[in-house]
Write a structure and sequence with these properties.
alpha+beta; L-fuculose-1-phosphate Aldolase; seven-stranded mixed beta sheet; globular
Length: 197
């Protein structure tokens, strides 16, 4: 498990270095195997900063019921991380991020219907991005809404909160988040005067 935890730390730090989050604003999970080949996930600890994440701030949780197996309390958003992994066995990574321009879009009154402003959009983001209404962070209601939105999509906007991306592994999820931020940057800087592909 030491190797998996070190990789998890590298992934967490990379998210911060890419500007996808600030301080404690984001959280990350990666699917892994626990003892006896049990389906588990590594999650960043509650209140932790991904950019400075330490080994003692990585929770090992059972996916089936969310139990922490190493005594570390996972992120308050563990509900949608583990819920997505339960509903979609092919998902190996879930990332909640609050990159600058995508978060501006999450706070817009009239959100775009199409984020495909560059060629990468259709490949990595998808034609449409579901929007979840504002719900209290860490609440069962938010977790249920995000899991439902991610059932048929790989990224979701949480109104006045941020974004969640998922994928089969970290590189896929990271790339999706970066390209989504790039699309939102075009949308925000163009002040609505943009075309889609």
């Amino acid at each position: 498990m030491e190797k998996e935890v070190q990789y998890f730390l590298e992934c967490a730090h990379k998210c911060a270095e890419a500007g996808l989050l600030s301080c404690s604003s984001g959280n990350l999970s990666l699917r892994c195997k626990g003892q006896d080949n049990e389906d588990c996930a590594l999650l960043s600890a509650t209140g932790s900063w991904l950019g400075e994440l330490r080994e003692d701030q990585v929770a090992l949780c059972r996916i089936s019921d969310g139990t922490s197996l190493n005594g570390v309390r996972p992120t308050m958003e563990a509900g949608f991380h583990l819920g997505t992994m339960r509903k979609r066995p092919e998902v190996g990574c879930v990332l909640h991020f609050q990159s600058p321009c995508a978060t501006v879009v999450a706070c817009m009154k009239d959100k775009p219907a199409d984020f495909n402003v560059t060629l990468e959009g259709p490949l990595y983001v998808g034609r449409d991005v579901p929007v979840v209404p504002f719900l209290p962070p860490g609440s069962p209601e938010l977790a249920a809404a995000v899991v439902e939105a991610l059932t048929a999509h790989d990224i979701v906007l949480m109104s006045n909160h941020g974004q969640v991306a998922c994928g089969p592994d970290f590189p896929d999820t990271f790339r999706r988040a970066v390209f989504f931020e790039m699309a939102c940057r075009v949308i925000v800087l163009s002040r609505g005067n943009y075309t889609t592909v």
